[in-house]
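Justification of computing resources. Each target in the renewal requires a structure prediction run like the one illustrated here; the chain below, 256 residues long, is used simply to show the kind of job we budget for.
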Amino acid sequence: MKLTILGCSGSIPGSATPASGYLVESGGVRILLDLGNGTLGTLQRFADPFAADALLLSHLHPDHCADFGALTVLRRYHPDPPYAPGERRLSVFGPEEAPDRLAALYAPSSAERAATDLSDVFDFRSVPESPVRIGPFEITAFPVEHICPSWGFRVAAEGRVLAYTGDTGPCGGLTGLAADVDVLLSEASWQDSPDRPDGLHLSGKQAAEVAERGSVGRLLLTHLQPWADSAAILAEARASTSAPVELVSAGETYEV
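Resulting structure tokens:
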């Protein structure tokens, strides 16, 4: 199973990296975990966007879904698509309000929003309550704590397991999400401090504590905000777990 970082900046794109988005591949099947600002550009360096088999949205903040509008334009208006219109609609798993919210993102005006139906190119589905199979992948969603409905995803294939936290504060859902995974791709938006708001994001230390409790094989830190001290976040994470810890960067690829 291969993980490619399409973008890893938290809250907004950074000067050198898009926001959150990740490509996971196994056995010729490609799934996308989030598609934030700028990630569609990076994706085109590694795979044909038409070749994606599914998109899973952890939540609907722009830094995790903004490039869905650009993907809609590509799938609707590319002059030479690899298949006929209406064929191979992309499966999109997200919150229940995703079809309406994403139509509003794409619609050219509020007057046209109600008439915007994206079902010609997308097959919308709610985040599954039980594990779902996509090719060789078995994907399990775990509700996590954020300021809107949010999920982390546990992705298993080839006898390996990747867990992705999405955006979350410390919560019980992270226990099952991270248990005994080979790689934990965890947000670490800021340095640890008692002044941080509850239920919003993880610090580097908190992400490492999740990894330590879960006995994960490797911790990859993502979603660092552009104004954050990434070296300090990495240092506090490494001090709080025995697992190897790295900061990811856009365009990097990892074997899970």
